[in-house]
Amino acid sequence: PIRHSESVPNVAVNVDLQTDATLQVDISDALSERDKVKFTVHTKSTLPNFKQNEFSVVRQHEEFIWLHDSFVENEDYAGFIIPPAPPRPDFDASREKLQKLGEGEGSMTKEEFTKMKQELEAEYLAIFKKTVAMHEVFLCRVAAHPVLRKDLNFHVFLEYNQDLSVRGKNKKEKLEDFFKNVVKSADGVIVAGVKDVDDFFEHEKTFLLEYHNRVKDASIKSDRMIRSHKSKLHIPFPHLFPHLFPHLFPHLFVRFFLKVSELFEKTRKIEARVAADEDLKLADLLKYYLRESQAAKDLLYRRGRALVDYENANKALDKARAKNKDVLQAETTQQVCCQKFEKISESAKQELIDFKTRRVAAFRKNLVELAELELKHAKGNLQLLQSCLAVLKGDT
Amino acid sequence: MDPPLPVSTSEPDKDIFSGPRAEPLNNPLSETAAEQLKAVSGASSKAKGDVPVEEAGSEEPDDLFSDPLGESGAELETHTSNAPLLDFSEEPPKSDPIKKAASADDYIKKPQKDIFEESTEDGVKAAAAHVGSVAAEKKVLHTDLFGDGVDDDEDKDDLFKTPPGAMMKKPQASLFRAEPDDIFPEAKTEAKPATKASAKQPNNAPTDLFTEEPFTVMPAARAAVKPAAIPSANTSSKTNGLHSDEEDLFAEATVELSLDSPRNDRRKRDAMKPSEPVPCPSTSTSSSKPQPKKLEELEEEEKEDKFDLNISVTNPEKVGDGMNAYMAYRVSTQTTLSMFRSKQLTVRRRFSDFLGLYEKLSEKHSPNGYIVPPAPEKSILGMTKVKVGKEDLSSDEFVERRRAALERYLQRVVSHPSLLQDPDVREFLEKEELPRAVSTQALSGAGFLKMINKATDAVSKMTIKMNESDVWFEEKLQEVESEDQQLRKLHGMVESLVNHRKELSVNTAVFAKSVAMLGSSEDNTALSRALSQLAEVEDRIEQLHQDQAANDFFIFAELLADYIRLLGAVRACFDQRMKAWQRWQDGQNMLQKKREAEAKLLWANKPEKLQQAKDEIGEWEGRVSQYERDFDRVSATVRKEVMRFEKEKTRDFKKQIIKYLQSLLHSEQQLIKYWEAFLPEAKAIA
Asked: Which terminus, N or C, of chain B has the lesser number of Cβ atoms within 10 Å?
């Protein structure tokens, strides 16, 4: 088990719009066990509905999902962009590698083994931290939301110090979800085809459709780029230098090549940092906005659906009036649909504006940090190279 | 060696050495300086004729060597015959310029000391060389004297039992560098033919050499050795026999120095000659005079480019069409070397010309133990693409790769002092039209090399395992083999690094496009702008990755590939040594048979056939000693070549690594520039 107890690295994909001291949530600790991760959710609050001002509970990923789903399913929240659920912790790849390493222990030198092990552990830890961060971001977003923060389920999630005994969805439910999704996306196409009366929403709709696809593409491509960057680092080329050079130059220039090996070793570490930071600042940002834009799209879908319902109710009402039959019922339905649509529209507009503000702020923050880190690393490399070259050139 | 030889063979040898040898010594030092030498050489030449074989073999060496080898004298007493060589191997490091005086001092503790005190790096070195060769000589003598294989082998073992490390590095290089070779301008041109000739008819070569080179190091060397050796004039005469051994050393040395400014040298030398008449130890002047210059040269040697010859291969150009098309390259030479007809030479050569050059050089120099740099390999696939004329990236890359490889190849050839002297090299660089190299059409450089390797492998497999007489060679060969493995491993890694970087570059380009698209759909203006800036940064980084991949490849991977092939050439030169050894062994077996035949005849009392048998024995004794000399010569060359190779290798790697680091440095600088330009854009997002 790997414990992560330092405060979560600033995977500040999330930029809180309103910082509010009345409810602050973070993940203070996390413990990775064989097949699950236990997050310690720490809450500080002055809200009256909590028994204490400060408390912690242990939660698992499934409970986060449960909370998220409860938001999605709540009709009252149809007008909100539901904060995207954190991705499922996935250590399988990393674990597998560690295991393989263990099997290959005999075939490597001790030094190589330790090095590889350290690297894989670092990789594992990075994934772990990211997982923790993503879960934290979800909670922070909820806690910062003017309505969702008051949600009862959320409070239970934060305060109830027992297992919520949430179970994962069984096969039948998963199948249902799948069909729901198929229907939803088919429906989404129909709904999307409906011309919106409101220019704002019409514009948002076109924007989000395109944006989502492109952010998805960018996210995939950035992942691929970073993956190839990391796999380049896995070539044992530089760290084999110290082993190789003595063979190549048994008597000569030992110092020279030691220096070079040392340099490669160091620059490689820096490059690993570069890849990790790009992952954190760029890939994660894009990934988050992939999910967030999906959530925004969902909101537009719900609104579109409500609009279609409302229009259908209008038609039904017209028909009922023409036939003078069931008019009252049609009127009620039309009323309900109208209210629903208007309620969604009202909050959705603000939500979408907020989404944009948040997005711009998050991109700014991350891109600035990315550029600064890139500069820092490049300068570090530059300095290493310069000083090494100075030594090597002087060393004839 | 000759004097001790039995009558039958001594004749040709006598001719060779008695006449010319005296001459060179006399000629150059024509004036007063010559006197002492003359006396010496006179004595020696006289002695040569006279001295009884037994004496030469058993006693003289002691006398000869006990003097110069002051410290190791004790050792000498015990193994008379091998000590000199031992010393030879140990001595050179001491003759390193800095310690020179001291070592000279140690070296000769005789009255003649003062002569050497100022002196004579070359003197000492030549002395060392001489001592070494004398030893070799003596060994032969020994063999001949006792005529039985066993004794022989033992002897040989001892001879080569040099402490593995001791001999190395500097000695050889400095030894040869220091020779005052330029004195013999003609020698330079003649050296090669002479060497060549010597390979075939070793007996003649020395003669040529020495007549051609009126007074070479020999005087100096002799001068250095002689005083020590004087007590036994006849041993010094024996040293003469050695010439075949030394001849390429001198040819080599000539080359080396001529790289500086031969004419200057000569002038200095000429100027110096008149001053030689200086009274007493005239020898000391002759050897000490060049001294200062020597030092300069040494220093120059240390600098990377002492070497005044720049070759570039440029302007690859497709000539002709279809499958008959070929690539021609412009080979430009810039040099101040007087051996070339002008300072700027430009010729056009096609790929097969390069292969042809390699084959010629390899044929001539490989058997002598030289490491002949292999030409780039023929690539049917790559060339076919070029021929078909697809103007795609890979064929451009192929052409550039080949151009660079050809350039490196030529640079390696001309940086080899002996190969530079080869008339074929000069012809290649100078001559307007070369005869078409026909044989290369079917045979690529690699194929050729492989063939050689196969052939030699077969030879070495067939023959009984050579009981390695010299640990040094055994260890080196092992080193070379493990080096080969390591290089291949490293090469594989660099290649995968190149591939990964290319992949990264492609992925970065793709990402850049994707970000640009994202930027275009972003509806916040500042963010949209920043994203398209980010796309631009990523685009540039993609270019950096691409450049770096090219650097990985051209600076690193190609270097490793070159050295993998060069190691093949190194192994080939070990094989050549083995061949020479085998020939010698076969010769000895034959001689043994002839002796047994003679013994039978004696026993059977058939005097009529006895004379013929004796003649045959004499003939074979001559051959055997020639083979042995060949083997010693090839061994010495291999040793020298390997040292040279290692030195070059270290320098090459060092140079390339620095170049590589500089390319990385450049990348980082660019990277910083790009991100610095981006940062304000990111901050401007609002």
From this structure: C
In whole angstroms, what is the distance from residue A291 CA to residue A287 CA? 7
The C-alpha atoms of residue B403 and residue B426 are separated, in whole angstroms, by 20
For residue A375, list chain B residues with Cβ-Cβ distance below 8 A. 672, 675-676, 679
- Contact call for A214 and B664, based on CB within 8 A: no
Helix axis angle, A254-278 to B607-683, nearest 10°: 30
Residues 376-395 in A contacting B (C-alpha not used; CB under 8 Å): 378-379, 381-382, 385-386, 388-389, 392-393
Per-residue pLDDT, B436: 65
pLDDT band (50, 70, 90) for residue B391: low
Section A78-95 average pLDDT: 85
Closest partner residue to A228 (CB to CB) among B503, B531, B657 is: B503
What is the DSSP code string of B568-626?
Answer: HHHHHHHHHHHHHHHHHHHHHHHHHHHHHHHHHHHHHT-HHHHHHHHHHHHHHHHHHHH
A371 touches chain B (CB under 8 A): yes
ipTM over 0.90: no
Tell how far CA B26 is from the center of its chain: 31
Give the number of other Cβ atoms within 10 Å of residue B314's Cβ. 12
- Minimal Cβ distance to B671: which of A210, A263, A378: A378
Instruction: Quote the pLDDT of residue B389.
Output: 61
DSSP A54: E
Tally of CA atoms within 13 A in the half-sphere of A174 that contains its CB: 5
pLDDT band at A68 (very low <50, low <70, confident <90, very high): very high
Residues 196-235 of A with CB under 8 A from B: 207, 210-211, 214-215, 217-218, 220-222, 224-225, 227-229, 231-232, 235
How far apart CA B209 and CA B448 sit, in angstroms, is 32
Average pLDDT, chain B: 64
| Residue A247 contacts B, CB cutoff 8 Å | yes
CB within 8 Å of B180: residues ≥ 6 apart: B122, B216, B217, B220, B257, B269, B290, B294
Q: Are A235 and B464 in contact (CB under 8 A)?
A: no
- Quick one: pLDDT at residue A186? 73
pTM of full prediction above 0.90: no
Break chain B down into helix, strand, coil percent, rounded to 5.
75, 5, 20
When CB atoms are compared, the residue of A225, A237, A251 closest to B507 is A225
Of A6-20, A330-344, B81-95, B340-354, give the range with the top mean pLDDT: A330-344
Task: State the best of A215, A232, A245, A264 to mutate against chain B, taking most chain B CBs within 10 Å.
Answer: A232
- pLDDT in the model for residue A352: 92
